[in-house]
Amino acid sequence: MKKKSVTRIFSAVMVVAMSTALCACTGGSSGNSSSGNNSSDTPEFIFGMSQTITSVDPHEDTDAATRCVLFNVFEGLVKPTAEGVLVPAVASDYVISDDATEYTFTIREGITFHDGNPVTASDVKYSLERSAATASGSSALSSVSDISVPDDSTVVITIDSPNSEFIYNLTTAILEESNDAEQATNPIGTGPFMITEFEEGEYLDMAKYDGYWSELDCIDSCRFKFIDSATTAYTELESNAIDCLQYLTYEQAEALGDDYNIITTSMMLIHGLFLNNAAESCPALQDVRVRQALNYAIDRDEINDTLFAGESQLIQTHGYPRVAWYNSDTADTYTYDTVKAKELLKEAGYEDGFTFTIKVPKEYDQHVQTAEIISNQLSKIGVTAKLDKVEWTTWVSDVYKGRDYEATVVGFDAASLAPSTWYVRYYTTSGNDFTNFSNEEYDKIYDQAVASIDEDEKMELYGQLQQILAEEAASVFIEDPADFVALSADFTGYVSYPLSAIDLTTIKAAK
Amino acid sequence: MRYFLKKLSSLIITLLVISLLSFAAFSVIPGDAALAKLGTDATPEAVEQLREKYGLDKPLPERYLKWLAGAVQGDFGASYRYSTKTVSELIASRLPVTVIMAVMSFIIIIGVSIPLGIIAAKYSHKPPDTVINVGSQVTMAIPSFFLGIIITYIFGIILNLFKAGDYISPQKDFWACVRYLIFPSIAVALPKIAMVVKYLRNSLLAEVNKDYVRTAYSKGNTKDQVFKKHIFRNALIPVITFVAMVAAEILAGSLVIEQVFGIKGMGNLLVTSISSRDYPVVQAAVIYITSVVVIINFAVDILYQLADPRVRYS
């Protein structure tokens, strides 16, 4: 009897449970048909992004991920190529005066905005002014003294002092003046793709713009899907929910099946152990011999082999091996040599080693692991490197802005292709000289390099700056890390850029 | 009525205290909202400008009062991270999916754990009980992110019953969303089922040996009647409290499961807002979670009255 009653209750509950399950199933089947409808307007190509994009206003201060995506939607008077050089875009032609103060642009004939309206010189003037007013972070356009519009297709920009690198700032997006009120939410540009839908926190869809000034042979539409966690992104790749994903680890790249091709490229990042050259809490780091000792004691190959399967480009200075400005002579300044390192420490009076702390942003596995390997390597010369894992926002305010640290592991990307923006990081009075590096000769050569308008001379001078950074051991520069990109075997044409850009115009269906 | 007013005032006081605490907590933790938005190469002037725009340059009490004045009118301000969105818009877009998933998980939890709990109690220390017990121990011991990954692999990648990453918001396609949420809901439900089963089993066993049960039998009741009218009802009281806690927890949004399955609900919003120091959003999310807990507690008090006639509030 007792048994029966329990069975009865159980069966009653089961009926409820089953009927809910059935409900869910009916829900499932109707969902099936509607998601079938839905797939027809799901874009052709789905690009997985590990960061969420929060703004589509190209003039706002944006992070690297936003710049990567918006590269397809907006163009400046000039735009960068995959080789890292600038080519005309909205302008078809430009002339730089001999003293590099006056830049004259001819607007491309027949070029239109995504709404079909022609681009005029006043749109260009408007865009540069809006960018200067909106972008609070960069003072890139602050040197402009005058923008004049002699006719509808000509723009003349005058800057207050000679600067041949000013052209790099003119990748600033050109927007339509008549759309001013909606620029922040629905900006209209001239790029090969136009935004069709922006779903907060989920995705950004774009479609090919048929009126683009150049012939396009690529996919018709793309969705940039925001996936916050790298693990989740990889799972989505394994279940074929996305077609392309960057920044895979070597193990992940190896484990992927035939559905994906792996493209090995570089992150265009200067990855290193950055040292506070003026650390009060650790006087040892103020001594050049100690910094050189660290350079000898850190085995760059081991880091490269462990984390990037040996595919990274090793460096010994603040230089990007992929661009023409790189001084490759610096590459063998230091060899892995613990004996030499110990000698240098002894010379500097740190025979028994010393202790310092590496503050590392904990969100970035690659940085944390590198710091762990370094700490282990340094223990062999009697130096104790302690790890302090901090949140990224804390890192920005304490380490980068506050310069309250002894050492850190981080990477610097190239936000701009202008070399002056890279080397100003070590200029004594510069606001972003966060390593407190200070060297009179360096400052002198930097001033010359910026002022020079002769390309060969510039190349020579920037080369010398890299030499100084290597010899003075400003920090321990390690590598431009390898980047493993997975691209669905159904597509081809992924091209890596030397700055934050994803180019959809080269991606097409595989034949 | 008086009871209701009393509860309401305690709800308001709780919300005030919590909002003040979270406000204070965020001014203590390191990391600056303006810097988080502008990134590494912002000029100091730009940072100052933005701090002024957000009102971060003002003293804490002033900022709190200003926030409070807006909040009571339902205006939680603008998000720092999304320059064109208000906090209310963000919450409104994220809340539905969290609620749907909570309801689905709750149905699964109740539907599975009550029969299992009864079976375990009925056959205590016999094979069915042992099997259930082992099952509960295992599901409770697995960390939820790992459970999520296992479910994704088995049901998503091997059995192809759903496609990881195919999430679609309920506003776009309700049924497709519900379908996608089935497995995440199971992942949320499993550890909770284990706990409810254990709770219910122990509670039932504790009741069976009480004096009133013997009295009930002596009055000529059948086992069936005793169980339904007496044991089960009394055993439910502590379980209700526990189930209510579970309900509050899943309504607050599962931080981990949402992350693993790529679901853009409240949990995901809270995590990303904290890491980008988007205080207005975090503040509103905290208020939401607090309200859920307090309101559910209130509902539990009412349920007590229905389950236990001795409990009467005036």
Care to describe what's here?
The complex is a heterodimer of chains A (511) and B (314). By secondary structure, chain A is of the alpha+beta class. Chain A contains 13 helices and 21 strands. In chain A, the strands form 5 sheets. In chain A, strands 8-9-10-1-11-19-12 form a 7-stranded mixed beta sheet. In chain A, strands 14-18-13-17-15-16 form a 6-stranded mixed beta sheet. The N and C termini of chain A lie far apart (71 Å). In chain B, helix 10 packs antiparallel against helix 13 (279-307). Chain B is mostly helical. Chain B is globular and about 85 Å long. Chains A and B meet through helix 1, helix 4 and helix 10 of A and helix 2, helix 3, helix 5, helix 7 and helix 8 of B.
| Percentage of β-strand residues of chain A | 15-25%
If strands are numbered along the chain, what order do they take across the biggest sheet of chain A? 8-9-10-1-11-19-12
For the record, what CATH class of the largest domain in chain A applies? Alpha Beta
Strand content of chain B: under 5%
Class from helix and strand fractions of chain B: mainly alpha
Stretches with pLDDT under 50, minimum 5 residues of chain A: 1-40
Task: Count every helix of chain A, treating DSSP H or I runs of 4 or more residues as helices.
Answer: 13
The description of the largest β-sheet of chain B is: none
Indicate the overall shape of chain A.
globular
Largest sheet descriptor of chain A: 7 strands, mixed
The CATH superfamily of the largest domain in chain A is identified as Periplasmic binding protein-like II
Spatial gap, N to C terminus of chain A? 71 Å
Termini separation of chain B (Å)? 8 Å
Helix amount of chain A: 25-40%
Mean pLDDT of chain B: 85
Give, in order, the helices and strands of chain B. Answer: HHHHHHHHHHHHH
Kindly report the CATH topology of the largest domain in chain B. Answer: MetI-like fold
Going by CATH, the architecture of the largest domain in chain B would be: Orthogonal Bundle
Rg of chain B, alpha carbons: 24 Å
